[in-house]
């Protein structure tokens, strides 16, 4: 067998042939990875249970990867249970110093112990390992918004405590090692700052242009996002460039786009506290209001996440109208209304929109 494969090998210096592997032993977790709650590093190995020890401990050899492989084979031979693939690597990464001490302590003693005690020691060692792996904190999942930004050129935006950073272009290098909801961003001047994903956006081609050229590009390309326009203007102003007509035009455009976005948000939030009315008339009034607000928000190019609550409420209203007991003409109207709302909502809740679309198809095909 290869060094990392399954199967068994004779123990070094044990004098025992390789075993075909008895049935899996039952673990009795009596050994713990750490001593008490002190959190201090080092081994807390207790004397093994069972028969008294025979023979003394030899000099501790230096720890090497071979020790890991041999210990794994000993576990297979004595317990008949190969460790999970990768378990040794996980243990080594978790607490290499503890494993080094455990291996250096256990391996020299094996050859001089009776077979029953050897089996007991393997069980105890696996017991320790299982404790170590069980105590490894789960790696927190990296947020989708963070994964989208990593490795890309980004623009800092919406930072209130250090507004001078807004508009700066940098590189999203990695998740912050001290705070996993933040990203380490390297700035052109060599500084590295940790920011939340909400304070970063992926840089557009115009963000990488010199400030004056970026102003001209923002006007020529008809950029509508007020945040992008504000970032372009901020870079222009920070560069101490001479103000000109194009910069004035961009300021006016940014102010108008911000007004449109703010109005769309206010309109969208107007119906947010309202629940679903019981009266059909009030439901229809709410549906009309939500449809109008969503169209305005979509035209203002609000983020899909901002449209989601109103879209879900509209979806509930439309499904309530799809009542099979309704008159044929009313049901046709409800289906038509629902179909017209599908493109509007598809950008923020595609799963629910597909559900509504299937619902409409089912009612349309029913007699």
Automatic annotation (TrEMBL):
Annotated Polar residues bias: 20-29
Top-rank taxon: Eukaryota
Source organism phylogeny: Eukaryota, Haptista, Haptophyta, Prymnesiophyceae, Prymnesiales
Organism (species): Haptolina brevifila
Annotated region described as Disordered, given as residue ranges: 1-66
Name used for this protein in its record: Uncharacterized protein
